[in-house]
Amino acid sequence: MSEKDIVRRLLNTAGRTFAAEAGIRLTDKPAPLYRLLVLSVLLSTRIKADIAVDAARELHQAGLGTPRGMAESGWQERVDALGRAHYKRYDEQTATALGKGAELLRERYSGDLRKMWSWAERDPDALRELLTEVPRLGPVGADIFCREAQQVWPELRPHLDKKALQGAERIGLPGDPDRLVGLVDDDDLAVFAAALVRVALNAKLAKEVA
Q1: How far is CA 41 from CA 5, 9, 49, in A?
Q2: Dihedral (C-alpha) 126, 131, 134, 140: value to the nearest 10 degrees?
Q3: 150-159: pLDDT as tens digits
Q4: How far is Cα 20 from Cα 180, in angstroms, rounded to an integer?
């Protein structure tokens, strides 16, 4: 099977961003970008991706889909929302971190991640550094955010993190980012990267593709 055939099967089988799975219609606006940040925090812990996605959806449905809503919510309210999604291993620590992170965004960036992007002068490395200042969002979480945000912030392209490269190698695609980028259109990079992560996390799915 050619690399193009593998990519076609990959996108047909797993071509969906994690943001889309969480019900986030990602646009260059404060609310969806914040929901992506929350999702990135949730995904960066050692917990199943589908649980993190469900938790992001629960927080939004509880009215915690904006920095203001999150910051003004009660700690127990956040814990309960996480619990409904069975995000229980790190629920208390994460509930605290989400509250502090929302306060940080409001104080420094008026709750608007586009201002963080401007503060970083649209430099991907500078953005990742600023993102790691958000509680419980380390380098892995910053990569998750950038991987998905490249859908609406073209300057982040191409962003293929370590997990995406692991997925590529698992299904017989090159582990070299430069070669991978040439297999899809720029506008498909976010979906492509997410699909690669999915096969990195799911051996059964990888076998379906390869």
Answers
A1: 34, 30, 11
A2: -120
A3: 999 999 999 9
A4: 22
Structural tokens at position 95: 């509930």
- What are the angstrom distances between the C-alpha of 71 and each of 18, 80, 101? 24, 15, 8
End-to-end CA distance of the chain: 8
Percent of all residues in the chain with a pLDDT value above 90, rounded to a whole number: 95
Name residue 12's amino acid.
N
Quickly list DSSP for 12-80. Answer: HHH---HHHHTT----SSHHHHHHHHHHHHHHTSSS-HHHHHHHHHHHHHTT-SSHHHHHTS-HHHHHH
The pTM is what? Answer: 0.96
Q: Which DSSP helix (H) or strand (E) runs through 138? A: none
pLDDT level of residue 122 (50, 70, 90 thresholds): very high
Within 13 A of 4's CA, how many CA atoms are on the CB side?
Answer: 2
Cis peptide before 124 (omega within 30 of 0): no
**Neighbour-count burial for 39-55, b at 16+ CB within 10 Å, e otherwise:** bbbbbbbebebebbbbb
